[in-house]
Design goal:
- The complex is a heterodimer of chains A (269) and B (116).
- Chain A contains 9 helices and 11 strands.
- Chain A is of the alpha/beta class and 269 residues long.
- In chain A, α7 crosses α8.
- Chain A is globular.
- Chain A starts with 5 loop residues before the first strand and ends in a 5-residue tail after the last helix.
- In chain B, α3 (82-91) links the parallel β4 (74-78) and β5 (99-100).
- Chain B is an alpha/beta fold.
- In chain B, α1 (25-37) packs parallel to α2.
- Chain B starts with a strand and ends in an 8-residue tail after the last helix.
- Classes of the chains: A alpha/beta (269), B alpha/beta (116).
- The A-B interface holds A 226-227, 230, 240, 243-244, 246-247, 249-251, 253-258, 260-262, 264-266 and B 19, 21-22, 51-56, 58-59, 62, 65-67, 69-70, 83, 87, 90-93, 95-96.
Chain lengths: 269, 116
């Protein structure tokens, strides 16, 4: 099954203060390539080649780097860093009038694969949900948003860890940071976002609660691939991502290792 | 394959010998799983007795690395026989794992730097 044509909004406006460098966060290299390029590649390989990149800090550098790699990417500008919901609002002019899929992805997640993006988009195609959220279930979740469900198992919202109650923090299913929305549902919910939260920002995750409160269907796709959830926030994460890229290469070589091992194996009589 | 485990300065030292391959992958996974269940996140794997390693064997070591490195832990290697070293270079896993000539050096590498 091929993902229906859609648009992707990739958030790439952040500064990345913890990276310890003046380079815009998404331009830090993973295995020789700016991390945002991996996100673009995954989106396009998933069949979504109509991409709007939301840029902010270091926007000229980001645009130059992306234009060197791809033609046709459109840019939205986030002048102030007022949250992930605010970032998606900046892409409105490219989404108005579109009534299909809108994938929302993060430019600092270089391990997310095309297969996973495709599975999220295809799940929306199959269910007609207003939103599909990629989640993962973890024994001891880090500071990711918790997926809150009602007694019937319906998703009713995502609560950021710093805004969560102790009971919500105990939830094991967390938001990874990849979504597919119905465009018009997303636009309508963005209009109603507020900033009544711990950071005083417009959270994209609040869109999920707004849609659920309207009675719209919100679905999840649960990944078991922990490495795909890696978001780069500091040099340690960057080093790990670099190593994970090497591991992906190694995993393709295991067949050759097997062949050599067969030759090497001690003969048994 | 034989797996022996010792603890040195909070580091699990896992000594592998024989054939680290598909036939023994479950055994290796169980040994690592037991240590993970105990909350161990720093590992030295001593490969000096390894005769053969195949893709399944490498995958178990790599999976341990993924599990601990996403948190505060790491997996470091020592005692490479030449043939195993070639396998790590061919797969580029030599760029993933920090490796050391001796077990003592590998264990010592986990000690906090002076003044840190």
């Amino acid at each position: 099954m091929t993902a229906r044509a859609g648009k992707a909004v990739i958030l790439a406006a952040g500064q990345g203060k913890r990276m310890g460098s003046d380079l815009p966060k998404v331009l830090h290299l993973v295995d020789g390539k700016p991390m945002v390029i991996y996100c673009l590649e995954a989106s396009m390989a998933a069949g979504i080649d109509d991409v709007i990149l939301v840029v902010g800090v270091g926007r000229d550098e980001v645009i130059e780097a992306v234009d060197d790699a791809y033609e046709g990417v459109e840019y939205a500008f986030q002048e102030e860093q007022l949250g992930t919901g605010h970032a998606v609002m900046q892409a409105r002019e490219f989404l108005d009038g579109w009534d299909g899929n809108v994938a929302v992805l993060y430019g600092d997640m270089p391990m997310l694969t095309a297969e996973t993006i495709r599975s999220v988009v295809e799940h929306r195609d199959a269910t007609g949900a207003a939103a599909v959220v990629l989640t993962i279930e973890l024994e001891n979740p880090p500071d990711f948003g918790r997926v809150v469900r009602d007694g019937d198992g319906r998703v009713v919202g995502i609560v950021e860890a710093r805004d969560a109650t102790p009971a919500q923090l105990a939830v094991r299913e967390v938001n990874v940071g990849a979504y597919c929305f119905d465009a018009s549902a997303l636009m309508g919910a963005l209009d109603r976002l507020g900033t009544d939260n711990a950071q005083g920002e417009y959270y994209l995750t609040d869109v999920i609660g707004i849609l659920a409160a309207d009675g719209a269907l919100v679905e999840t796709v649960v990944t078991e691939n922990l490495e795909e959830t890696l978001g780069i926030n500091d040099p340690e994460h960057l080093d790990f991502a670099e190593k994970l890229r090497h591991i992906r290469y190694a995993e393709k070589m295991y067949g050759r290792v097997d062949a050599l091992a067969r030759e090497r194996r001690p003969k048994t009589s | 394959m034989e797996v022996t485990t010792e603890r040195e300065d909070g580091v699990a030292v896992v000594t592998l010998s024989g054939e680290v391959d598909a036939e023994h992958a479950d055994q290796l996974q169980a040994a690592f799983g037991e240590l993970l269940g105990l909350g161990v996140h720093n590992y030295v794997i001593d490969l000096s007795g390894v005769v053969v390693v195949d893709g399944a064997g490498l995958a178990e070591i790599v999976n341990l690395f993924k599990r601990v490195r996403i948190g505060p832990g790491d997996v470091r290697l020592c005692g490479f026989p030449t043939w195993v070293k070639v396998m790590f270079a061919m797969t580029r896993l030599n760029k993933v794992f920090d490796s050391f000539e001796t077990r003592a050096a590998a264990v010592a590498s986990f000690a906090p730097a002076e003044g840190a």
